[in-house]
Write a structure and sequence with these properties.
The structure is a single chain. The protein is α+β, with helices and mostly antiparallel strands and about 100 residues long. It contains one helix and two strands; from the N terminus they run αββ. A two-stranded antiparallel sheet has the order 1-2.
């Protein structure tokens, strides 16, 4: 049986916009959200993926755990020490 450890890290973006008092709601058709979805979010995801891929030994894939990709995108990362090609890292100060 293979021993597995895991850790979840959440990086959350909360978007908030303010409108003048005379704004009647949804007048702009959520143009501010469209800008996030079509411009900023793809750039952020591309940058995150680029940084993660620079670290050798890790495999990275995007997966969906039932949430809409409008609300959540998960980068699943894994590293395999079971094949013997990579040694298990030592803790600081520990020598084997």
């Amino acid at each position: 049986m293979t021993f597995t450890e895991d850790k979840t890290f959440t990086l959350r973006f909360s978007l908030e916009v303010r409108f003048p008092d005379d704004y009647d709601g949804e007048e702009d058709g959520y143009a501010w959200l469209k800008a996030w979805d079509e411009e900023m979010k793809p750039e952020v995801l591309k940058a995150v993926r680029s940084v993660l891929r620079r670290h050798s030994g890790w495999s990275i894939h995007v997966r969906n755990r039932g949430m809409s990709q409008e609300d959540e995108i998960e980068f699943a990362m894994s590293k395999d020490f079971s094949g013997g090609s990579s040694s298990v890292p030592e803790q600081e100060g520990e020598h084997r």
